[in-house]
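Please decode residue identities from the backbone states below.
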């Protein structure tokens, strides 16, 4: 009945969001639509897809922790340091979790929470 799903993030500044998701996290653009002041971009990382839509009128409140995007990295600590060096706000430092993975929490340019994880060997 259902085939697939992916999150769509709404932003007031598409270029700023693309700088975070493409330049820092390594997502690749797979589709772009722009018409009548509306813009939408689909991004892919591995087998994951994320949509980003630019619509400042829809942003009436700040994002909350109710939505989190989880991104796996080869090394959580190294990835978080890379993001910090590029001005990304680190909300929780990397820490070993009870289930055996390292996890940290950062904020994208719009304040959405992005979980950075790495598997421990």
């Amino acid at each position: 009945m259902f085939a697939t799903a992916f999150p769509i993030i709404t932003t007031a500044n598409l270029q700023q969001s693309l700088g975070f998701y493409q330049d820092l996290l390594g997502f690749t653009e797979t589709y772009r639509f722009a018409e009548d002041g509306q813009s939408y971009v689909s991004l892919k990382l591995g087998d994951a897809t994320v949509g980003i839509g630019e619509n400042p009128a829809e942003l009436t409140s700040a994002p909350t922790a109710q939505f989190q995007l989880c991104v796996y990295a080869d090394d959580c600590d190294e990835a978080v340091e890379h993001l910090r060096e590029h001005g990304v706000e680190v909300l929780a430092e990397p820490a070993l979790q009870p289930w055996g993975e390292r996890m940290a929490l950062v904020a994208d340019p719009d304040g959405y929470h992005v979980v950075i994880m790495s598997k421990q060997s």
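Observation: The mean pLDDT is 90.
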